[in-house]
Fold:
Amino acid sequence: MISNVHKTKIEYGDFQTPLELAERICQKLLEMGVNPDVIVEPTCGLGNFIEAAANSFPSTDKIFGIEINPNYLQEFKSKERLLKDSRIDIQQGDFFQFDWLSLVNKLSGNILVLGNFPWVTNSQQGSIGGNNLPDKYNFQNHTGLDAMTGKSNFDISEWMLIQVIQCLQKRDTYLAMLCKASVARKVLNYIYSHKLNLAYCATYNIDAKKYFDANVEACLLFCRFDLNSQNYYCDVFSGIDSSKFHRIGYRNDILIRDIAAFDNLNKLYDNKSKTKWRSGVKHDCSKVMELRKADNIFINGFGEAVDIEETYLFPLMKGSDIAQNRTHTTDRYIIVTQKFVGQPTEYVKDLAPKTWNYLESHTEHLDKRKSKIYHNNPRFSVFGVGLYTFTSWKIAICGLYKKLDFRLVGKIANKPVVFDDTVYFLSFDDEVVADKNFEMLTSPTAIEFYSSLIFWDEKRPIKSSILNSLNLQVLADINSRNKIVMVD
Structure:
């Protein structure tokens, strides 16, 4: 059972910023020419940013801090030197109930919003019964399967940053907030998609393990706003003290990781490409649907020996198998009950009665799969299946790994290999065609193109939308100059 202390830490995304880091950030802002009239810290916690700001910006007229946790406020009041600073005004308040727009409108001069919002997602809040989050609604406007299968999950800090940015529009203001690197990009996406004003944006990577003991890619997000600029790009620095950067920005309405590299290869981009990368099979019940073969005996995830026909049984490769190039043999197998999504499954009972009896004996697990995609579909349905699932040859890559390692995979024991849903693949009936396409996809040109699009710090950096954006015919034309010829 989760302790109350740990639950509170999770609920409030409690990563207190060390004074050392807060001071370095304030020094960086001074180096950038930021010298605000008013500083606002919307979730000031123990007050380290307030203290750093008070020390770093002597000409600032007012420093506001808001904090929901009364214990933190009490601890802040023990800092007598800060209490004597007449510029500092600390109040107890809930960010989600506070009228930020009214506060900003009352302030004059340049405003800097500074700090560190909670590092927690709404799904994490739900798992612990936490209430420190905004009213629930799909503010990202995801639809269909995206809303059902997790894309509607979001970082609380993303929502909070968006609220602040909306308040800072149409005036000369600054934002300097610590956040996950992925959240910074989502905020940039929001600014771009809603055509908000943005004069300049940059991120500076920080060592989250050192400062917060957190295994996450994090950064200082800096934004400068003015009356009418709409500069939708972001300079990405490797650290607060680094002068080297690459620029991310928009091309064809998508966010590009490296604009300079992408522009050199933009002829390869095609958002209507005929190429169709598929994801592997989704079943949400591995203990039943996935088996291991040992001494010619199939064993399920419960440790039970399973005696079924091999009619619906196929060799299985996981994303880790693809990433580590274990592609010539496997002891894993998967039950695939359909040849296409929505196909009736009653035929399994006639064609493979032992398989049907096995599935029925585990209805307790199969019929209780939580995802809505299984509702109103045939019993024992799976997803991510089609004619492409059963082809002889496939080019595969795992979406979770941080490297562009494509693999050419053929049949095993004369049966087509099936992948789990962390794998993307192209399917081929002809080995020669598969081999030539594999040669193209592993060429330096293709790797450079994909690398310009992929944000490697994301949980699933390699996405089907990115893979599909490469025009293979144009790539074939380019590679033909290097003696690589595509076979139709």
User: Anything to note?
Assistant: The chain is about 30% helix and 20% strand.
